[in-house]
Amino acid sequence: MRLRFRFYACALIVMLMLPIFAAACGNDSGKPKVRVGEVARTIFYAPQYVALAKGFFAEQGIDVELQTTAGGDKTMTALLSGGIDIALVGSETSIYVFQQGADNPVINFAQLTQTDGTFLMEREHDGTFDWNDLKGSEFLGQRKGGMPQMAGEFTLRKHGIDPQKDLNLIQNIDFANIASAYASGTGQYVQLFEPQASIFEREGRGKVVASFGVESGRLPYTAYMAKGSYLDEKADVVQKFTNALQQAQRWVANNSAENIADTILPYFKDADRAIVIDAVKRYKEQGSYAIDGVFEQEEWSNLHDVLRTAGELKQDVPLEHLVNNRFAEQAKQTVK
């Protein structure tokens, strides 16, 4: 009788402890859960969707929960408040947080894209293009302080154009509404991400005449980052995450635009396959997808130049202050 009592007592304890064990593991599968917030849902982030679709995160033993937190400010707020564990956002946001004197700085640990992802579209294209054509025109740009706009202005200045004086720069339209504003007739020129640029070309609404990614050079444009405390406490999880990303980056580098498009289409349910292929092809051809997550000093310095030109840099921030390359370097060396 006493033995049976002990058995039932032990069974009861185990049953009561199961939810605690499950919570500690992150989910019912026993895999640690990693909450990732992406600043946008875009073909520009193709390697991330490849890692999810091909099961690379799962193979590493982690469960990635992806959510779209539209806008850099919202994404960073979610990260700092604990709503997400890892943010996929422009590296400039980590500098902004640092400049505000954060006690627990946000650290970049894996790079996803290495160029700007926007293109210059001209509404009335006659077959030729010169940057001087923009002078005096109505230019529909991106949000002030965001990397697309800063890379755009950096490029314009490189070509002798003062964005504030030489053209009518429109910046009061939300990111989500820029494409529709252009479609309704606003702007002679517009700065667009893919696939919207390819969609408008097929619809005859304009012609892509230049790439801001090519013009502004290599940048740590979009990266995964987390609070320093998370990297310390969850180093094994972060390494597994970076390993999966490295596997996806190599897969993207070694596969055709068609294969990549077919793999990521479930994340763009309403997208036309041909449009996705065109968008992926453009990004691959200009080297937008990083082949590994390692941050290079030259890219970090170029980011400073872009921020400085836009008047958004209060002080230079050494790469080692806000970048931890340890995870990406290990993944680069060990993941085949």
From TrEMBL:
Pfam families membership: NMT1_2 (PF13379)
Keywords, comma-separated and alphabetical: Signal
Keyword Glycosyltransferase in annotation: no
Record's keyword annotation contains DNA repair: no
Subcellular location: Periplasm
PROSITE patterns: PROKAR_LIPOPROTEIN
Signal peptide start and end residues: 1-22
GO cellular component: periplasmic space
Family: Belongs to the bacterial solute-binding protein SsuA/TauA family.
Protein name: ABC transporter substrate-binding protein
